[in-house]
Amino acid sequence: MRYSHVLLGLLAVTWTVPVQGQSQGPFGVTMGAPISKYTSCEKRPDQEGWYTCRTLPKSHASFEMYFIQAHPKIGVCFVKAIGKDINRDSRGIMTKAEIKKLALQIEQTYGPQTAIRDSLSPRSKFKAADEWLMGVKEDERAFSYDWTDGRYPNDIESIHVFARATDAETGYATVEFYFKNEKQCDVELDKEAF
Question: Tens digit of pLDDT for each residue in 125-164?
Fold first, then answer.
């Protein structure tokens, strides 16, 4: 009887080690993984080290496109998700609600955000309530939830979920996940630029 408990204990240890060693980050993307692991990703001709992805291993229903930054030596170092258009939302009410919803989902894995930004440039001419999205489009208004203390699961350094707009009526959410190797990735890509 004693031996069966020891055997079960050994089996439990051997089963949990691989799972912990294969931690997956946002959208099923792992820091340092080769870009070839994500088969729907295509190299962007205009930017070295950047890839556009139609889907990822754990795609999210709120997003229609993804971008990954990767370097051949460093692997994946950054993931960005672009949300679906939210139309007829000049006041930004639905766009803000979508961002808050995503922030709550992110909190479940990464804990509470370190900052919430909701600001309008004092020089902006888009001060009216129905010009909220126009302020976002012109980079005069910021609305975001940020995680920046660098101590997150899945090798994440920082996270940002924020509002973007294509015009005065159409907004969308964007989420960026910076892995701990992102600065190293930038250095290597900058070296190759010259």
Answer: 999 999 999 999 999 999 999 999 999 999 999 999 999 9
Nearest-5° angle of CA 70, CA 108, CA 82? 40
* Structure-block tokens of residue 16: 């949990």
Q: For residue range 15-47, what is the model confidence (pLDDT) as tens digits?
A: 222 333 345 899 999 999 999 999 999 999 999
How far apart are alpha carbons 46 and 153 in whole angstroms? 32
DSSP structure string for 110-130: H-S-SEEEEEE-TT-S--SGG
Burial annotation 149-163 (CB, 10 A radius, 16+ → b, else e): eeebebbbbbbbbbb
The ranges assigned to domains in the chain are 29-193
Tokens 């020089």 map to which residue?
123
